[in-house]
Amino acid sequence: MSAADQIPTRAHLPGARILAGLALRAEAVAIPLAALLAGFAAFSLFLLVMGKSPAEFYGLVWKAGFSSAFSWQNTLSRVAPLVLAALCVALPARLGLVVIGGEGAIVLGGLAAAVTGTAVAGVPGYAGLILMALAAMAIGGFWIGAIGALRIRRGVNETISSLLMAYIAIALFNYFVEGPFRDPASLNKPSTAPLAEALRVGDMPWIAAHWGVVAGVLACLVSWVLIDRTTLGFAARIAGDNVRAAQVQGLPVARLVIGFTALGGAFAGLAGFFEVAAVHGSANASLIAGYGYTGILVAFLARHNPLAILPVAVLLGGFEASSGLIQRRMDLPDATILVFEGMVFVIILLSEALYGRFRIFTPAFWERR
Amino acid sequence: MDSVEIGLWGVPLAILGGAIRVSTPFIFVSLGECLTERSGRINLGLEGTLVFGAMSGYAIAYETGSPFAGVLAAAVSGACFGLLHGWICKFKGVNDIAVGIAMMLLGMGLAFFFGKPYIQPVAPDLPSINFGWWSDVPQVRAALQVNVLFILGGLLALAMAWMFRSTRVGLTVRVVGDSTDAARAMGLDPDRVRLLSTAMGGALAGVGGAYLSLFYPGSWTEGISSGQGLMAIALVIFARWNPVNCFWASLLFGGAGALGPALQSIGISEGYYLFFAAPYVLTLGLLILTSSPDRAMQGAPLELSLTK
């Protein structure tokens, strides 16, 4: 760096200061977007090698995911669990924790909702639904919060423990659904007792998607306010950047870690509640649908920013919604979307190496104009 | 041969046989991960590598008629996954744990994508050696049907321990794993050592996968792995990055996995689904017991992001 670079210079271009302020934000949007496009390109190449047409693939994704009211309904029904599962990754990630076991909280949250639903069948009004949602959030929060507690109190690696806990959760789920809570009438597909009609979550009036989408949007807003607009979130971000600095500052790191992981788990549990109360009507094996795993990709694509999670979840929801049509029309296996997601994920992580490499995204570049 | 009534003795015997059968993929994946982590990098993607190894091993064994060609193919494909992981992690600012998660999804996706046509056909099995020839009891004979890969895994553990202790290669890996700066000062290329260690680790995980599809359970399905690749990574921590300990820990995990079927064989089926959780609960319990809040884990490679 030459001496001239270090002399502060006045901005000459009108609005240069604004541009300088925008530069870092622009970087945070441009790099993931470019990586996403690179991911599309890499997957196109993969399809070409397989002798399939990328144009047909993306055309079908558009058709099945975004082109009509019916396809939007299909996409939005996946947005709710994806958003909530992604928050279960994004919130701990702001504290520097890589928690990937959201699937366990979704599954147990759904089970808790279904079991509570049979217990509160007589409760009037919305009270029953609220109790079900609270039960789901409590168990989800406990499940993921325990991972945060193990990390901070015992130094147990949270990535590994969260995945192990997800396997344990699924084993518990199977035990309860096939054993103590099984509805004797469910012969071929073991399920809990079907929910009463009053305890089902319906569709929103103006669009054919259930209320879980609204809950997902609200959860994103709450998370964004918490992280970006409160002192608690500020403390969490400091702890995420440097744990020791935060501890020296006297920040309650342990409580922050447990609180953020528990909140993320509560959101994942809520996803389980909506899957049971709005989609399946009881807890059964359909609940283990892998939303927890796709949610990881959503969170990383959104760079753990709650507001970015929404559009990313819509995009990936659309891709997942088109899986069936792609299987039928293009004669591709159902794992095609999984390959696509894996490729995009790898390239997104590769793009992390690009931050700070482009001068156009540095405030200094604009301040000197 | 007539079945001999051996009563409750069947349980420990079934657990022993199960431990030998179930532990082999654990041995290979944990030895592979041990090598990778000793070089200072963690590859969480071995679960995906394991599944892809199971698929490619089965497919090649079916196409060529030779199970050993399948094992070789699984090793080569595993090495490719390891190379990709190692190459991506070379770049500054890339988180090796996150890359591992992505590689896990990619490996499973590719395995399911290419494995669809191989779900029905039957590929040849790997041969096993009968160590129970001296006994007339069929349960003993069944328990002592030991696969060649299990024996190979045990020898590999000894060889790797020797390599770390008294060879130049082992020393190189250890130096790189303990201090990037010291390795550079010695004229070593840490990125290259880690790339090769990750590739070797991937190859071993691929072999572990081939065992799943070619011997036990012995066929390719999409649910073939129930997190073995992931548990093996936790097991390396428990084994304190020591290859011989990895072998014993794998046997222990295999025994935990065999507990459910063993109890079921004598008629205890109450809470069958809970026994499925036994290996995960055991892994988690050991992880909790062996971790420490001070982050200073005995035997841990100092450059490892997992324990930093």
TrEMBL record, chain A:
It is found in: Cell membrane. Keywords: Cell membrane, Membrane, Transmembrane, Transmembrane helix. It comes from the Bacteria. The chain crosses the membrane at residues 29-50, 79-97, 104-123, 129-152, 159-177, 207-227, 253-274, 280-300, 307-326, 338-358. GO terms for cellular component: plasma membrane. Its main location: membrane. The keyword RNA-binding does not apply. GO terms for molecular function: transmembrane transporter activity. CDD domains: TM_PBP1_transp_TpRbsC_like. It is a multi-pass membrane protein. This is Nucleoside ABC transporter membrane protein. It comes from Aliiruegeria haliotis.
From TrEMBL, chain B:
The chain crosses the membrane at residues 6-32, 44-62, 68-88, 97-115, 142-164, 193-214, 220-239, 246-266, 272-289. InterPro entries: ABC_transp_permease (IPR001851). CDD domains: TM_PBP1_transp_TpRbsC_like. Its main location: membrane. Keywords: Cell membrane, Membrane, Transmembrane, Transmembrane helix. GO terms for molecular function: transmembrane transporter activity. It comes from the Bacteria. The keyword Nucleus does not apply. It is found in: Cell membrane. Coiled coil: none annotated. This is Nucleoside ABC transporter membrane protein.
